[in-house]
Amino acid sequence: MATQNISKFKIESLEPTSFSLFNVTREPRAFAPDDIKAACNNLVIRELSDSPVKLSSPSQFFLHYLFTDYFQRAHQSGLYNRQRELFEAIGKVEYGESEPVSYGMFFNKVLWPCNDITLFDKDKNPLIVARVVDEKDSAVSERTDKSNAMDWLRNFVDKLNKLQTRKNCVAGAFFAFVGDFPLDLKARVENLIGVSDPVARYDCKLPPPAMLSLNLLEMHKNGDTAYDDEQQVEDEQELLDYSYRGVLVLPQLKN
Q1: Is 38 or 105 the better-scoring residue by pLDDT?
Q2: Please, are residues 250 and 215 in contact by the beta-carbon 8 Å criterion?
Q3: 8 Å CB contact between 139 and 111
Q4: Contact between residue 95 and residue 9 where contact means Cβ atoms under 8 Å apart
Q5: What span, in angstroms and rounded, lies between the C-alpha atoms of 47 and 65?
Q6: What average pLDDT does the chain have?
Q7: What is the pLDDT of residues 101-146, one digit of tens each?
Q8: In terms of DSSP H, where are the helices of the chain?
Q9: How confident is the model at residue 51 (pLDDT cuts 50, 70, 90)?
Q10: Fewer CB within 10 Å, N or C, the chain?
Q11: How far apart are CA 194 and CA 171, in angstroms?
Q12: What was the pLDDT predicted at 230?
């Protein structure tokens, strides 16, 4: 994908001396829920000045979800014990990139309604990969290919397998869908991870060579979200989009 289509952003702490997600991942049992919330509130996602394009709203929300909702739920539910590599990787992320996904060769490439987000550590190692699907994306509404969600999933798993074979440092992945998650897609992932096993259903690990946790996420639009001071929200946390709500489809956690 051409570099002009890549969105670039950085993960920073508002107060470097305060609680951070990295602190929590080092000793998760030592922190109370209020500490976790403070650590999440201390995080900001900033778009880089040389970023050719801005993050899409679904991609913005996914990042907000990962660094707040998922992180807090993983800690409070004990999921971090089952997905420890992913949980610890979240605290190591320093920057990331998002790019649209296309399929095909050279002049026959077709743009899919997907964006792939890759999160890196300070040594440029890819730690977390996410595919965010928005079938109503106006940029690809006129596509004529006959691909479907199963193709997007299959392609994503192939990508994870190849990336892990080359790098062997990816700690976890997400497949996020704007709207309801397709049931056949969920069934396919459940089959891959062995959901009938009481432990595997929370590990959510793909078979070799990937051998990493793949979580499924629904993102539903909120039509009535409002803020008293939208400019203040934008100033404090530039790229966090609050127009969606996230539902973790897999693993299914107790409320």
Answers
A1: 38
A2: yes
A3: yes
A4: yes
A5: 17
A6: 87
A7: 988 877 778 889 999 999 999 999 999 999 999 987 656 555 545 5
A8: 21-26, 33-41, 57-65, 71-77, 79-82, 84-90, 149-166, 183-193, 200-203, 230-236
A9: confident
A10: C
A11: 19
A12: 43
**Kind and range of the H or E element at 107?**
none
* Separation CA 39–CA 20 (nearest Å): 5
More confident residue, 107 or 89: 89
Residue with tokens 């062995």: 194
CA pair distance 134, 241, nearest whole angstrom? 15
Structure tokens at 145: 């290919």
Nearest CA to 135 out of 114, 111, 115 is that of 114
* DSSP code at position 68: I
Smallest Cα–Cα separation from 175: which of 218, 139, 205?
A: 218
Give the chain's length: 255
Give residues with Cβ within 8 angstroms of 229, minimum separation 6.
none
